[in-house]
Amino acid sequence: MYSTNYNIKKELLFYPLNKIDTLTISLNNSRLVTKKTKCKICNSKTFYDCEHCDLGISETYRSVPRTLLKKLPLIEEQIIAELKDYKLTCSKLCKNKDEAVQLIQKVILNKKFNDKTLAQLIDIHSIYGNKNEISYYISKTLYHFDNKLIFLLKLYEFIVSLATGVMNPYSLFYYKNFKKYEFLIKDFEIDLLITKEEFRELYQNVPEYVGSLLNFYSPDKEYPKTIITNKEYECDINFETAARCRQEDNKLFFINSSLEGKMIKKTRDQIRSEFELKKVKKPKVPSLPKIEIGLKLINCN
Q1: First to last CA, the chain
Q2: 7 forms bridges with which residues in the sheet?
Q3: Could you read off the pLDDT of 163-204 as tens digits, one per residue?
Q4: Residues 6 or more apart whose Cβ sits within 8 Å of residue 115
């Protein structure tokens, strides 16, 4: 019989949950989360004018049952059992955070997504998982591995998010080998509160993104991108996010928002170069000619 409380294992969580504040949760209390649903007021012809939804998609509250939260200790046990197959040798792999970042970047660039590199990444995260940049890179890299352990980790993260009152199904459902390991959900007798069909229908709208498509990088696809899909938005590395993570790790904070933006862009370009990408060239803006009128010189720019 399990305790009424459960201690969340931070070492099993990846960015942005790697620095979760809530470490202990009650397994006897249910929670409420918001879940996307079809609008019951409008239809496909009138949803553009509907004040109760966003293009036919509304939100409702759903209770997170205690039976679902009580699956966390079971999933943790299974994860620990899987981890026993991996030897921890991180002390021999990298001496500090910078060397760890370089090793992860090398894995991504060389597309070495095998069991050996997975063991290295898990090992690195066990020591440097409190560093946002490292945890962020690894969280994005996990999508490329075909392994039961990855599915269990993503399932664990999904339920932890529910326990904190957030419905975030992207990482779990976008895992490319979801279908292969979906049987584990039935083995654990878990109700995810959302089906794959609901996810496809209600969570596929691409978020409004303001920024450069050059921020997104994936070793599996042609780069640079010309369009961003919802899956790429969630799964690919975003250099701007990586830059913010690096600045947070280095404890760099700015009062001046303009200076902060410049420094993030500078750090982003540095990270792009580390991924062997060329510096973004600014497009030349044609200047208008100067016109002399009488004794005055007018600059048309």
Answers
A1: 76
A2: 24
A3: 999 999 999 999 999 999 999 999 999 999 999 999 998 888
A4: 147
